[in-house]
Amino acid sequence: MMEKRDIPESIATLIGPKKADEAAKKASDMASKLDRNNSWWQEPSHVFRAITWAIRS
Amino acid sequence: MTELHWLSALEAVKLIKNKKLSPVELTDALIKRIDKYDKHFNTFISFRPEQALKEARVAEEDVMKGDALGPLHGIPFGLKDIIDAKGWNTTAHSALLKDNVADKDAFVTGKLKEAGAILLGKLSTHEFALGGPSFDLPWPPARNAWNRKYFPGGSSSGSGAAVAAGFLPLALGSDTGGSVRNPASMNGLLGIKATYGRVSRSGVIPLSFSLDHVGPLTRTTSDNALALSVISGWDKNDPASADVNVPNFGEDLDRGVSGLKIGIIRHFYTKDLIACDEMVNALEAAITKLEKSGAVVEEIATRPLQDFAACNRVILLSEACAIHKDWLKSRSEDYGESLLSRLLPGTALTAVDYVEAIRTRARYTQEFNEIFQNFDAIITINNMEAAFPIEDSALCEKIYPRQARTPFNVTGNPALAVPIGFNSEGLPLSMQVITPQFDETMAYRIAASFESNTEWTKHHPDLDETSVY
User: Fold this and answer.
1) What residues does B415 pair with on adjacent strands?
2) Chain A interface includes B334 (CB < 8 A)
3) Which of A7, A52, A54 has the CB atom closest to B347's CB atom?
4) What's the pTM value of the predicted model, to 2 decimals?
5) How far apart are CA B156 and CA B466, in angstroms?
6) Is B79 exposed, middle or buried (0-12, 13-18, 19+ CB in 10 A)?
7) How confident is the model at residue B239 (pLDDT cuts 50, 70, 90)?
8) Do B341 and A8 touch (CB under 8 A)?
9) Span B177-181, mean pLDDT?
10) CA–CA gap between residue B123 and residue B433 (Å, rounded)
11) What are phi and psi of B48, to 5 degrees?
């Protein structure tokens, strides 16, 4: 099934309808091709790691 | 003696430590070569010969005084221009950052300087390591050292072309969807994307923080192993940095491949995508060579390339758009066309897409971890074709995605680009050696065995011929 995606209006206004349409088509294609065969349960954090995460000095 | 510009870093450092070569002599030879030829290849964005010569004179004095010398003492190097060096511009090859000056060294820059290496310049890239090759930016795109009409790979374009041209023995690049291994492939070099977390990215402009890696490009396997040993290590300023032991990655270079079990992924280039005959023939010859050296080779299957590519793109563009969101709204006219067209789809992806892609990534990583329960390494193709004419934008859009590198940005495994020959036009061909997480030593062991049985890394471009347009 095609996953229809749209460019946010604030961006589409800046770049014009032609580029926005092209970008939306590419995004829709990417979203459609993504393998979503995932099972869901409590997940580990993928970026945040308590051991190494610190506010930069 | 080998001409100075073709000395490997290891050969040069040995001569320097034995007082048979001065760092000044080496640096001066490279500066003269860059002065003569780089106008044809556009590899440098910033070039500071006087500063490098001054540092080379200090390095020479250290040798004469008998001081303790680092493993890269007196060796000139270059940085992809998204990597900070204190007091130098970091432009990301973009009008948006053309006046951006770094106030401190990136972690990797500091490591190379500590090892005694001398920064000679900052090198061309695709804009923000994503958009290119582009002709609408403040600097022209780098060109292939083997034929300047051709694309040198990207996004670490200048790093690849400069090392292949004999301007530098060593340069750093970054790799988010294959951007170290692509220029390594198209310029006939060794280039590694080590395990995610092995090399710090602090002080490196991010493209996609959960996929970004920094890695070295060199002309020999032993140089690459040395450079990775120097730049690796835990860094508190990179939240993804892994606090693991850093071995001497070159410790097994002479062990050969006898008895190693190597899996071959052929469906990436025979079914998922169809590679050109010359690339496939060179790869199959390389596999046969490893088999004759005693490796046990077995074909294996994974999920198709397209699954990895989709996962990589959704994560990469979601994160890149989060990074660029303010500029996209306030300065979109300052981006080059190529970057803008690649970045914009990311603004339409949803939070659910991103979370699904991350979960999918964890699953794919586990699948590779299971394969490595039974194999020491995996070999597959790098690009489906050799380099293509740089000014043919339609061909670029068609051929650029035809590669097998993104799976290993997704899984985080080490992946080393290794030269495997040349096509009928004299352009380099390449394979990848992939190993278990944090076992880069194995990748270098296999590459070194192959290198010792072939002549591919001994070939160099004749710039008097390749610079002719």
Assistant:
1) B193, B434
2) no
3) A7
4) 0.97
5) 20
6) buried
7) confident
8) no
9) 97
10) 26
11) -125, 75
